[in-house]
Amino acid sequence: MSAISLFPTKHELIAATAAAGVVGLLPGVVPAAGTGAPIRPFTVDIPQEDITELRRRIAATRWPDRETVNDRSQGIQLAKMQEIVRYWGTEYDWRKAEAKLNARPQFMTEIDGLDIIHVRSKHANALPLIMTHGWPGSVFELLNTVGPLTNPIAHGGSPEDAFDLVMPSMPGYGFSRKPTGTGWNPDRIARAWAELMERLGYTYYVAQGGDWGAPVSSAMARHARRGLLGIHINLPATIPPEIAAVLAGGGPAPAGLSEKERAAFSSLETFYKKYRAYAAMMGSRPQTIGYPLTDSPAGLAAWMYDYNNGEPERLLSKDEMLDDVTLYWLTNSATTSARLYWETMGQSVLLAAAQKTAEISLPVAITVFPEEVYRAPETWARRAYRNLIYFNEVNNGRHFAAWEEPELFSAELRAAFRSLRQPH
Asked: Which end of the chain has fewer CB atoms at under 10 Å, N or C?
């Protein structure tokens, strides 16, 4: 049991979102499966005064000088940021984002103060799947997969491909309780997720994660709690120790690498040298960076939009990303979410040794999306994960694969977990 209270306030929870008419939960207070803990109806309803205050702060933004280059090599460009922030303060509608969360019946339950979206499929024998988001994401990055995963017939699949979905917000993110002490690293989150699945009454299930969800899912596989059948990850920790040493020292690519291994090395070299400053800052001084991010909406938006060389700016609609940024703002979770980087004490989520992949014996499935931070070579993946049951390189998709390519992402999960489904 974690030190986080089991009796959080309403704003520390969002629970069990379910397909209408599917989940066997009655109105009012009902017991959680297998636990006796209450599950209560819940609706997201941010006070209007919070939204008004956000718009006031946006209007009062103090802007820096324009960048001195004609590209985004110094970061997100002033004109683009002013356009985004103007739209945020004058046209963006948070109530539409709330409607996405409130579109189906929602329930809250006292499970370690966690914010949970729980969507059951209408198909019998659906495979339970717990999915974990990352930073600067949230449950919003996973919502586009709900239809394809719970109702596969409508998306080119078969009833046998259906999943029941559990989508918790990590501690310090969204409506989940904010930790008041240290220790909430991927291992501890993984233990909380295992307890959560037990409390929901699932006797077997699979796990999926990208970004921070990858080390959380990998930790679940290392722990191998009863019921977990296997995991799928789309940001695998495959970098071998000898490659990690060269990258850390800034040396050239080692001799003898294959074409795909050289391409991966080049991408990693670029990422570490140019696009990882955010992680260094949050990993060393999350409290310090938290002050400006908590005080300035424009600062928070710029910090999040610039991720991975501006991937959110380039590939998501303004409304999609602003749903996410606004969630961070309204829940005051910029600082608490950043602390996850500090909790890992500089251990890269990409290094096989740091993530202890050699200790994983459960089945592992990997999908490589072409514009991810790096394209994990299959040779490295098979060295890192001794029980790799599925490896596929697809033609589209980037870091936020579930958000950007939900149909393709869902098809990959169906294929990856097909061999792990239990006979009935």
From this structure: C
Strand order in the sheet with 388-393: 115-119, 163-169, 127-132, 205-209, 228-233, 364-368, 388-393
User: For the chain, which ranges sit under pLDDT 50?
Assistant: 1-33
Picking from 206, 213, 194, the residue whose alpha carbon sits closest to that of residue 134 is 213
CA dihedral 310→311→312→318, nearest 10 degrees, is 80
Amino acid found at 133 = H
- In the residue annotation, 328 being an active-site residue is answered as no
Inter-axis angle of helices 286-295 and 277-284, nearest 10: 110
Residue 38 is predicted with a pLDDT of 61
From the list 371, 417, 424, the residue with the least C-alpha distance to 396 is 371
Work out the burial of residue 203: count CB atoms within 10 Å of its CB; fewer than 13 is exposed, 13-18 middle, 19 or more buried.
exposed
DSSP string, 345-377: TT--TTBTTTTTGGG--S-EEEEE-TBSSS---
- Say which of 92, 205, 341, 385 is annotated catalytic: 341
Q: Are 387 and 361 in contact (CB under 8 A)?
A: yes
How many Å apart are CA 263 and CA 257, to the nearest integer? 9
H or E stretch covering 407: helix 406-417
Q: Can you give the pLDDT at residue 311? A: 83
How big is the chain by its Cα radius of gyration, in Å? 21
211 belongs to the catalytic site: yes
Looking at 112, 115, 164, 211, which residue is catalytic? 211
- Two structure tokens written together for 301: 């938006």
At 163 the pLDDT is 97
Scan for tokens 């037990």, then name that residue.
198
Closest by Cα among 189, 214, 229, 157 to 369: 214
Provide the whole-model pTM: 0.90
The strand pairing partners of 390, in sequence order, are: 365
The gap from C-alpha 125 to its chain's centroid, in whole angstroms, comes to 26
Rounded to an integer, what distance in angstroms lies between the CA atom of residue 10 and that of residue 109? 10
Instruction: Return left, alpha or beta for 125; rule: phi > 0 is left, psi -120 to 50 is alpha, else beta.
Output: left
Enumerate domains of the chain plus CATH numbers: 10-42+106-239+348-420 (3.40.50.1820)
Q: What share of the chain is helix, strand, coil (3-state, %, to 5)?
A: 45, 10, 40
DSSP states of 92-141:
--HHHHHHHHHSS--EEE-STT-EEEEE--SSTTPEEEEEE--SS--GGG
